[in-house]
Design brief:
Layout (H helix, E strand, L loop, with lengths): L1 H12 L17 E7 L5 E7 L4 E6 L3 E6 L4 E6 L4 E6 L2 H6 L5 E11 L2 E10 L4 E6 L5 E7 L5 E10 L15 E2 L3
Parallel strand pairs: 6-12
Antiparallel strand pairs: 1-2, 1-11, 2-3, 3-4, 4-5, 5-6, 7-8, 8-9, 9-10, 10-11
Length: about 180
């Protein structure tokens, strides 16, 4: 589920430069985006529901996760193990993904999956560097993250669909076992 968490962090971590107004970092309307992960044909599906301010990321075979933005709550679901794990982000992680704790530098514009986005260089206070291409309404179309240990992750939108996201998509299965840390 690290790839799911990566996308949630990328979506939450797009941040402003000190000289510019911050870009919108969460979608302003319901959307589904199908991404290609790390240049492979592995599709990663992202859904955002504005009514509940929830993001859902699904990786085939591995499972899916839901991030509740207002509560900073992450729920990870393993379809293989039929388990659910819930956690509230620790204050340090919450601070890490807040725009005021990062810097953005506008780079230009391009088109991905038929939509225009603005490229931003992103720098975190903890050494994470990345790039994000965000639409004006807050949808991530491309993201690259390089961690201080050298690991790299990337996503690029293959399709974008502005359709209503139903509440049941964000609910965990009631017959899965809850795992506690």
């Amino acid at each position: 589920m690290k790839s799911g968490l990566l996308i949630a962090v990328l979506l939450a971590a797009a941040t402003p430069s000190l000289a510019e107004a911050p870009p919108r970092i969460t979608p302003t309307r319901d959307v589904q985006v199908i991404y290609r992960f790390n240049g492979t044909n592995l599709p990663v599906t992202y859904n955002y529901r504005t009514a509940t301010q929830q993001s859902r990321v699904e990786v085939p075979l591995l499972g899916w996760g839901v991030f509740e933005h207002q509560r900073s709550k992450l729920t990870q679901v393993s379809n293989l193990q039929r388990t659910v794990r819930e956690e509230t982000l620790a204050p340090a992680m919450r601070a890490r993904i807040q725009p005021q704790n990062m810097q953005f530098q506008r780079q230009g514009q391009r088109s991905i999956a038929g939509y225009t986005c603005t490229d931003w260089l992103v720098r975190g206070n903890d050494g994470d560097d990345g790039e994000a291409c965000l639409t004006q309404d807050g949808v991530l179309l491309s993201g690259h993250l390089m961690l201080p240990d050298g690991r790299r992750y990337s996503v690029e939108a293959q399709s974008v669909s502005y359709t209503q996201q139903i509440a049941s998509l964000f609910r965990t299965p009631s017959d899965y076992r809850v795992v506690r840390r």
